Write the C-alpha cells for this entry.
Amino acid sequence: QDSSTAEQTIDVMNTLFGKHPGKRANHAKGVVAEGSFTPSADAARISKASLFAGPAVPVTIRFSDATGVPTIPDGSANANPHGMALKFRLSDGSDMDVVLNALAFFPVATGEDFRDLLKAVSESGPDAKKPTALERFVATHPAAATAGATAKTPSSLARQTYHGVNAFIFVDKDGKRQPFRFRVVPVEGQEILPDEEAAKREPNYLMDEIGPRVAKEPAKFRVLAQLAEAGDPTNDATKPWPESRKTVDLGTLSVSKVVADSAEAEKALLFMPNALTDGIEVSDDPLIDARVQAYAVSFSRRAQ
Ligand code: HEM
C-alpha cells in the first residue's frame, strides 16, 4: 500500500474527531492494565510459537473506546467498537502484539476503502444532500452497513468479546500452516447493555469500573483461534467465517491490575498488528499492512 493512504487516513480521522495532542488518532480513550497469559496444551500442537510452549508470560493490556475523541462517554454508541490491545512479553525478551475490537467483521476490506469510508462519513453531516457520500459508499460496500451492529456497549470491559477480524497463520513444528482468526472471550460471558441503559451510564463508567473489579478478582478471558477451512477467505475482513468452524482454546488471559499512571503509560505504548513471533505469521489480508502504516503515522504524530 502507498504510504500516503495512511497519512490521508489519519488526516480524515483528525478532521472527524479533532486534533488532540499526545492522543491516538483512533481509540484515543483507554486504560492500561497488566496481567498474564497461560497457554493450553492444544496451542503448542498448532503453532511452534514460544508463547505456547509455556510457562505463563506477562501481558500488557490496553482497553479502549472507538474514535479519536479522548473524552467520549463510554456508553455512547460511537464508543463502539471497544478495543483490546495485548502485548505479550515473551521469554526471549521480545514482544508479540494482538490488537482486537468488538466487531465480528470489518466494514471494509482494504486501507483505501477505510480511508474512503471515513471521508464519506466526514462529508455526510445532517445538512448533506441526498444521496449522501456515505449512502453512496454503503451502496457499493455492503459490510459497511452491517458491521457496526455487531459491536454493542458492554456492562464492563471485562464482559465483552473481542475479535481479531484479520486472518493470521499458525506454523507448527513440522511447517504445517493453518490460517486462523483470534477471538478473546470473557469467561463470565459477554454482557451487553440495552441502548437506553448504556446512554444513561456515567461518562467514564467502563474505564472506572475495570480497576476496582480486577483488584478484587482478576478478569479472565479465553484466547481462542477460529480455524479456517479450505476456501475460507483470508484476505477479506468483511467476510466472517461460518460459526461452525472449529475453534482451538489457546489459553487463558488474566487481567489483574490497572497500572498506577495509565495516562502516562499509554503514551509509550504502540501495538502493531504485525508484531508477531516465529510460529505466527501475517496472512494475505491487505488490512494488516494498512493498519501497520496508519498506526505508525498516528504514533509519530502523537509522540511529537
Ligand atoms: C485500515 C483499517 C484500520 C485503520 C486505518 C486503523 C487505524 C487506527 C489508528 C490510527 C489507531 C491509533 C494507533 C496509535 O496511535 O497507536 C488505531 C488503534 C486501534 N485500532 Fe485500528 N485501524 C484499523 C483497523 C482495525 C481493526 C481491524 C481492529 C481490530 C480488529 C482495530 C483495533 C484497534 C485498536 C484496539 C486500537 C487501539 C490500540 C491501542 O490501545 O493502542 N483497528 N487504529
The pocket of protoporphyrin IX containing FE is lined by residues 9-10, 24-27, 30, 62, 64, 83, 85, 99-101, 106, 111, 114, 164-166, 237, 269-271, 287, 290-291, 294-295, 298-299, 302 (CB under 6 Å).
